[in-house]
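Exercise 7.
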Amino acid sequence: MKNLLINEEITNAIINDPYEENLIDISFGDFTIPILTKISYSNHIDYKLFNKLKIFTNNKKKEKTNYYKSEIELYSYTENIKNPKISIIIPAYNVEKYIGECLLSIIKQTFKELEIIIINDGSTDRTEEIIKLFMKDKRIKLISQENKKQGAARNRGLKVATGEYIGYIDSDDWIDLDYFEKLYNSAKKYDADIAIATNIRVGGSKKAKNRLNIDSEKAVSSLKEKFEICNHLKNECPTNKIYRLSMLKENKITWPEGSYCEDKLYVTKAIYYANKIVSVPNIYYYYFRNPKSTVFSKGIKFSEDKNNARLAVIQFLRDKKAFEIDGQYWGLNYQKKIFGIPIFIVKESICTKQIIIVGLIKFKRGILWI
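Solution. The predicted structure, written as tokens, is:
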């Protein structure tokens, strides 16, 4: 790491940051300090300003901890829930900056009959310490394991869940306070296996963006309508939904493990097997654009996992003869590169191949693999 000149301008920028974006990860120009409290000492650093930043960061941590304690005192549910209506599964890995707000949005829910299962997936920061602050709420169960990624963590939660429905929340996201109340009521009203809400991307340098816009309550049951109402082919989100647990168990729907893109096949199977899906307006799941999230990984492993997940989805739909949504979901079957530039590409959907030769596209249609 390059040595960084910490000057008064940088110090004030960090201290006056209203969103606390730079408390841990600090970027300035071409330089980055990964962890504020782990800055290497050098002759280029103003020690007085460094200590000022360090004290400021520690004070902010204390303020947050005290804030969590006061909110937990007010909103913790101190009664045991014998038959929870919804089990919420939250995998958590190194999210000390975010998990407190996530859990506050859950314990404050207007819907109280919850089981809150948190899987600490091998965190090495203060994540578990913050979770334990919230365990005054009797609905919270903490499971700790070595790091196995989200798929394995969610499967661990599924094994112990006892709710009628399952909800997933990522540990750096949050939800409206009536989120589960409205989802559950609509699911019961229509006897639907899945209820979905609008999800909004927030955070980062980009403006907030609705990933799915729901403006009315509507229940659908045909395969094409189920995929369309979830906008699944463009928005493969597992977290803006609740799923009937009995439907998941009957169809043996579990999370692929060891993959970066475990959500694609899981959600596809759930949508396929659901008897009905109901859309629920005026409630929101807030998806935080965390710069450290695996969804922003650009490595070869991530790219391979992403394409393999797409091919697994296509194969599943092909096996189920879901031809009515052919051509809406594609996976890379083969490509030939010269000097790193693709010149021949073969993509596949459920029963269609797409061949691209140096920008020219040719389609072959028909039941080619069945």
